[in-house]
TrEMBL record:
GO terms for molecular function: histone deacetylase activity. Belongs to the histone deacetylase family. InterPro entries: AcuC, HDACs, His_deacetylse_dom, His_deacetylse_dom_sf, Ureohydrolase_dom_sf. The keyword DNA-binding does not apply. This is Acetoin utilization protein AcuC. It comes from Salana multivorans.
Length: 406
């Protein structure tokens, strides 16, 4: 998109010059917002609709749509128990609903729950397939990132674990090793559980500590099962951690482990709920910092995973003012661009949002300066974030033959 005034809409700058071929895929189907737990539920489907519309108005160079196919039960059963899938199909009515984590305030049953949940799985598998088969080097599934879903139980707004299914699909189709990095404010417990004892999968979750946030897990000593020691990695950050410290934690833990693991594909989850305005969490990470984190994932994939990167959405409950900015930015980063976050968002999108009676954000970023202070520059034992970093490095790095330092 071009404009005659610098301040009227966001400018997109190709990182490597003019785009001559597709550089990223965007998995989308118009029925993805049918994943809807009803009025008042925090996971409002409008966050997907607004993100899709923003991506359209931005006209991101190099970004192409990836169609989302229906998925058979056999694909879901790569990670989910058949009895659980059958229960979701039946609406999990009656006494067994609690057994399967359905019918709760977090995971209420709705008529299309199986179809809508499986479509999200299809979105992330389609993104993974497009990357693994070489259609695009990177792909985004904004509807995906349902990282709390367990093999036999829905949890934390998540019914089917699309990330787990996509990673298992990659392994079944030739990938030898897959690295998964979860940047949601909540611990990526479902994905970790699925691959707890699988030496082919590295899971790293950088999240608010379970001492202050659901699901109450994800501590440094949780490091993987027999044969996969050191392949489950958890950085438990204190409440109110700000953006620069958040990036410092990622940089101190993720790159050394991903480099040592040498994955064939990098999969990442980008829940927008680490933002300071999110009503369900206690971190203070700006849009600017979250997109810096996305660029870090893109660069890691380029350096250590042959450029193959699959990125998903996830949490995010400031559904109008924050989520579309983070996930549209994620799509732009995946396409190889470095969005100018000091620009206004497209006027047409802002008018569409306002016409819905919603508060339209004006700027792409929050106006925060992003400064990464590498962990190698020094450790402050009085700093809560630095102590969290050290706890994780000491718990995990020796398993991988890495020096934890300090």
């Amino acid at each position: 998109m071009t404009t005659s005034t610098r301040h009227e809409t966001a400018q997109l700058h190709p990182a490597g010059g003019l785009v001559r071929r597709p550089t990223a895929g965007f998995a989308w189907a118009n029925d993805l917002p049918r994943y809807d737990f009803g009025p008042g539920h925090p996971m409002a489907p409008i966050r997907l609709e607004l993100t899709r519309e923003l991506v359209r108005w931005l006209r991101i160079p190099g970004l192409v749509d990836v169609p989302v196919p229906d998925v058979p039960d056999e694909l879901l059963e790569l990670v989910h128990d058949p009895a659980f899938v059958a229960a979701v199909q039946a609406g999990a009515v009656g006494i067994r609903s609690a057994e399967f984590g359905l019918g709760t305030d977090d995971n209420p049953v709705f008529p299309e729950i199986h179809t809508a949940s499986s479509r999200i799985v299809g979105s992330t598998v389609a993104a993974a397939r497009s990357v693994w088969t070489g259609q695009v080097p990177r792909a985004v599934s904004i509807a995906g990132g349902m990282h709390h879903a367990m093999p036999a139980r829905a949890s934390g707004f998540c019914v089917y674990n699309d990330v787990g299914v996509a990673i298992r699909w990659l392994l079944d189709n030739g990938a030898r090793r897959v690295a998964y990095v979860d940047l949601d404010a909540h611990h990526g417990d479902g994905v970790e559980r699925i691959f707890w004892d699988d030496p082919r999968v590295l899971t790293i979750s950088v999240h608010e500590s379970g001492l202050t946030l659901f699901p109450g897990t994800g501590f440094p000593y949780e490091t993987g099962g027999p044969g996969a020691e050191g392949l489950a990695v958890n950085v438990a950050l204190p409440a109110r951690t700000r953006g620069d410290a958040w990036l410092r934690a990622i940089d101190a833990v993720v790159p050394p482990l991903v480099e040592e693991f040498a994955p064939d594909v990098l999969v990442s989850q980008h829940g927008a709920d680490a933002h300071g305005s999110d009503p369900l969490t206690n971190l203070r990470v700006s849009v600017d910092h979250q997109l810096a984190g996305a660029r870090m994932m893109r660069d890691l994939a380029d350096r250590f995973a042959a450029g193959r990167w699959v990125a998903t959405g996830g949490g995010g409950y400031t559904v109008v003012e924050v989520v579309p900015r983070v996930w549209a930015g994620l799509a732009a980063v995946a396409a190889g661009l470095d969005p100018d976050l000091g620009q206004r968002l497209p006027l047409r999108w802002r008018l569409d949002v306002s016409e819905r009676g919603l508060p339209a954000p004006l700027m792409w970023g929050d106006g925060e300066t992003v400064t990464l202070r590498p962990f190698s520059a020094g450790y402050d034992p009085a700093d809560d974030v630095d102590r969290a970093i050290v706890a994780t490095r000491h718990a995990v790095f020796p398993h991988r033959g890495l020096d934890p330092g300090w």
